[in-house]
Amino acid sequence: MQVEKGRVFREAWIAGVTKYYPGQPKASYITPWDDTPDWERASAAAVYEQVRAFIEASDGNTSKLTREQKGRFVATCWIAQIYKHIPDPKPGYVADWADMPEWQRQTDSDIFERIEQEL
């Protein structure tokens, strides 16, 4: 079950990168699930689960959140996973919302909305 949750997250990420990234994205941004590193798979499943729990704890009222609020939640959860798996991450990996590129903010918002649709 966790694998499928992680796969949903990863597929939403790839769809967002494909839609919003200016130009040709790095290969690692669009690596298929089966070729994604284990730590990244675990992180995708963990963040999916955090978003699911957040949606359920609000009795579905996350639909009233703005896209930015939804994306910020995904971004914050992902940053925590980066710190969990990478001892000394590059600053860009843990950038705050305001410092993230627009394509990444839009992708994170899409991920939240994809998980909402799943539920």
Q: Quick check: average pLDDT?
A: 95
Report the radius of gyration as a whole number of Å. 13 Å
Sheet of most strands: none
Number of strands: 0
- As residue ranges, the low-confidence spans are none
Q: Span between N and C termini?
A: 14 Å
Globally, the shape reads globular
Assess the beta-strand content as a share of residues.
under 5%
In terms of structural class, how would the helical and strand content be classed?
mainly alpha
H/E series, N to C?
HHHH
In helices, the fraction of residues equals 55-70%
* Number of discrete domains: 1
Q: Figure out the total of helices.
A: 4
Helix and strand arrangement:
Layout: H1 2-20, H2 38-57, H3 67-85, H4 102-118
